[in-house]
């Protein structure tokens, strides 16, 4: 595995692969890798000739009072994991190389970026869209892989790629969970042992909603959301940010479940914000 | 010459050229071609294996009270000109194909887009940056050619390409002028015969500024700008929008001319807005 720090070197490698007609798979990450990332990497390796994983904690997608500085980082461990997975390249650019002095270009996916996660994290998706557009230009992948935990991010990036006529196919893979149901996340490390025991209730609450729809035939979105909220409210250490039952394409709230839909939630547990979601299928 | 309407067909042609290792030159235009465009096309043909010219009157870069609807169009004449120049492809997409329902992705080059032309035309450069990014993704050129008349546009696009790590080299060519000095522009057709006789005063005024710097050694920007304004003010039919003496990189006003700088102006002549600029060189 080659570790590449410079953008120009990354482009050089990509040019070589393209000249040989090889396909490129890309897994953009912020590092501190877990099984969720590994599922993306393994699918990329299965589908493409060469796999690039990037590790870049992108300052642009963190708000001023968010956790950019303390976001968990462990490059040595990540390098070990990626070598073991036989990834071709770890792309690990510096902030200075990605955002040099005078940097001033930003991408907005309007409407989609302002709701749910975007409402709680202003500017977050502008940062995500901008950095992913840059990374796509640098790595020029045929396929890029994302986890469903960031379901809104996927909808936004898919829209960006389509709107800007970019030549990359985005692939979303299921959430990987701990044995007790907690969605894997680099941020889970923030949880105290006590919070960690409470955290699985987020997924349990979403399961309450899913059972209501898929087993009891409930179709009224308000009732489904209320059931999820009530379940979460039983635990006093949980503060609900949002519970949303939305259309899979435009992320607008739906009133009645008629086809596939996304049930998503964000909570605070102490200072830590956790997100999770499930897809609802009718019939 | 192939006339391509569909984005997918354009991408297919480009893929074929790339597979053969050919270079691509690109001249994005809004049509109603004049000698200025031809100078770009000829340079593209000289430098690259294949030349693509796009004609797309981009609604996104026109303000609600601007001239999108009456912007001059003459496809038959343009096709004749481009055939004569032996361009490989005329790319002529529809608005519906470029901005399908649900379109919502926009590119901002902050700071640079808000001043001068951007101050008079809010949203203009957002529209320009967005459409050019899209066109670059579709045509994937090695080189793209622009005229110096839109000097601010060039600075903004160069910044976008650099910031977003795009693989295209932007080339700016000198303004092509009528024999009386008027910068060629598709919008010159708006001028009444009487306005047309007055229009060359814009370039003459810029020449007054240039002579002051290059022949008389004036270095005080305020005095140079004032000389240009005074010259323009002699003609009552001219209404000055701005006269600016700015840095070539960041477009900020300079106080003292020390090296190369841009002297740019915009005026109204009746309802028509004209722009022009000259580069100032010291020594």
In short:
The structure is a homodimer of 283-residue chains. By secondary structure, chain A is α/β, with parallel strands linked by helices.
Q: Main traits of this protein?
A:
alpha/beta; 2 domains; 283 residues; 3-stranded antiparallel sheet; 10 strands; 6-stranded parallel sheet; Pantoate--beta-alanine Ligase, Chain: A,domain 2; 10 helices; homodimer
Characterization of the model:
Two copies of one chain form a homodimer. Chain A is an alpha/beta fold and 283 residues long. Chain A folds into two domains: 2-173, HUPs (Rossmann fold), CATH 3.40.50; 186-277, 2-Layer Sandwich (Pantoate--beta-alanine Ligase, Chain: A,domain 2). Chain A is 37% helix and 22% strand. The first copy, chain A, has ten helices and ten strands. In chain A, the strands form two sheets. Chain A has a six-stranded parallel sheet, with helices on both faces. In chain A, strand 2, helix 2 (35-47) and strand 3 form a beta-alpha-beta unit. The longest helix of chain A has 16 residues, at 124-139. Chain A is globular and about 55 Å long. The mean pLDDT of chain A is 97. The A-B interface holds A 7, 11, 102-112, 129, 133-134, 137-138, 159-160, 163-167, 250 and B 7, 11, 102-112, 129, 133-134, 137-138, 159-160, 163-167, 250. Strand 5 (105-109) of chain A pairs antiparallel with strand 5 (105-109) of chain B, so a sheet runs across the interface.
């Amino acid at each position: 595995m080659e570790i590449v720090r410079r953008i120009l070197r990354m482009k050089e490698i990509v040019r070589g692969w393209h000249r040989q007609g090889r396909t490129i798979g890309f897994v953009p990450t912020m590092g501190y890798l877990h099984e969720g990332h590994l599922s993306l990497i393994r699918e990329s390796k299965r589908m493409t000739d060469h796999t690039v994983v990037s590790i870049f904690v992108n300052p642009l997608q963190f708000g001023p009072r968010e956790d950019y500085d303390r976001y968990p980082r462990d490059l040595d461990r990540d390098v070990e994991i990626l070598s073991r997975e036989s990834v071709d390249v770890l792309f690990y650019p510096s902030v200075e190389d990605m955002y040099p002095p005078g940097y001033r270009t930003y991408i907005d996916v309007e409407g989609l970026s302002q709701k749910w996660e975007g409402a709680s994290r202003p500017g977050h998706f502008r940062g995500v869209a901008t950095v992913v557009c840059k990374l796509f230009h640098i790595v020029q992948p045929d396929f890029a892989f994302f986890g469903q935990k960031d379901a809104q991010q996927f909808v936004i990036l898919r829209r960006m790629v389509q709107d800007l006529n970019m030549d990359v196919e985005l692939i979303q893979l299921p959430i990987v969970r701990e044995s007790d149901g907690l969605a894997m996340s680099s941020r889970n490390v923030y949880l105290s042992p006590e919070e960690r025991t409470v955290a699985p209730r987020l997924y349990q609450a979403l399961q309450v909603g899913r059972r209501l729809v898929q087993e009891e035939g409930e179709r009224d979105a308000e009732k489904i959301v209320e059931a999820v909220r009530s379940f979460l409210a039983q635990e006093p250490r949980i503060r609900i940010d949002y519970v949303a039952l939305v259309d899979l394409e435009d992320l607008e709230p739906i009133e009645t479940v008629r086809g596939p839909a996304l049930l998503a939630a964000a909570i605070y547990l102490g200072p830590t914000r956790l997100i999770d979601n499930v897809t609802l299928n009718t019939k």
